[in-house]
Amino acid sequence: MLRLCAWLCLCVSLACAADQKPKIEIPPEVLPIVELARSAAPEVFADAIVRLIEAGRIPQREAQIELLTQAFAIASTATEPIRLTALPAVPADTRAIYRGRGRDPDLDALSLQSRVLRELLTVDPAKARQLFSAIARPVLDPRPCSDPFVADASPYFEIAAGVAQSAFSPQEKEKAAHIQFLSAVLAGIRSPGELAPFAQALESVALTPAEWALVGAGFSEKLGAIGLDYRAFAVSFGALQAEMPLLEQMSQVEGLHDAFRRYAVTQLTAPRCKPDLVIDTSALALTDDETKPSTRDDGFDTGEKYFSSADGQAIGEKLMRLQSLRGSAELNAAFDDFFRDFRAWQPSGDDAGVLHQRAT
To answer: Is residue 311 predicted with pLDDT exceeding 90?
Structure first.
C-alpha cells in the first residue's frame, strides 16, 4: 500500500512538472510559415527555421530551442550530406559546375546542422554542445580521379570552434576541457582539405599561450600523419599556407614550419590525378624533385556540356540580344519572341541537366 501511494505521488508530481513546462508560443503570423515549411523538403524546413530565428520572428526562447532541435534532426536527412566544390579546372556550363554551385545556399546536411547549432549556441549552449556530438562526422576519403569535386567540411570546424568557445563553463575551461574537445576534433582529421578550416576556426576561440602550444603541437603531428589526397591538398593549400604564420606565432611550436614543408612535399610527390592544379609553393623554395608526382592517373569526367545543341545555342544568342536591347523600344517584342521559344525549348540530357539549363 505504501509503495502504491508513493507511485501515485510520483505520477502526480511528474504530471505537475509537465504542466509547469512553458508552453511553446509561435507568433500567429509566423505559424503558417512554419507549418508550410514543415510539409516541404527537409532543406526548406531547416533553412526556414534558422532564417525566422535570425530575423527575430520567433522571440520566445523555449520555442526557439524546440524548433531548432527539430530542424537539427530533420536537416540530417537533406539530399546532399556535405557540400561539394567543383575543381578549378572544371569547364563552365557542365553538370559538375552546376552541382558545385548548389553549395551556395548551404543546404547540405552538414551546413544546415552547423547553422542550426550556431543559432542554438546563443540561446542554449549546453543543448548545442549535446547536439554537436550527433553530427555525422564527415569522412573525407580521396575521391576517384573521375570525380570533379572536393568535399568542403569547413562548417563542421566552424561550429566545433563555436562550441569550444561558448559551450564550456569557466570551471571546465580551467580544467582544459575545451582543449580536450578541440584535440579530439583535430585527431579525427583524415584529409588535407580539413587542415585549413580547422586552423581558420581556431581564430574564433580564445586560447591562452599554453593552450595554443598544446593545439599547435597536435597540429604539427597531424601534418606528418595526414593521408594522401592531391586534389584536397591543392584546393586548400593556399588557405592553409595563409594560416601558418599565425599558428606558428601563437603556438611557438618549434619545427612547425618544417612540418608544413614536409607535408607539402609528401602530398606533391604522391600519386596525382590529372590535371595539375595551380598552387603557389614559391615561399617553400621546393626543388623540382620535391614537386614531382610518383605517378599520374586519369582526369575527371564533367558530364555532358550544356547549351551545346543548335536550339540551346539559339536560345543563348536570343538571351544575349535581349540584354543588348535594354532600354530600347524593341525590347518588349524581342522578349515575347524569346519567351515563346523558351517555353517550347526541350534541352537535351537527363532531368537534372534539363533543370540546370532551363533554370540558367
So the answer is: no
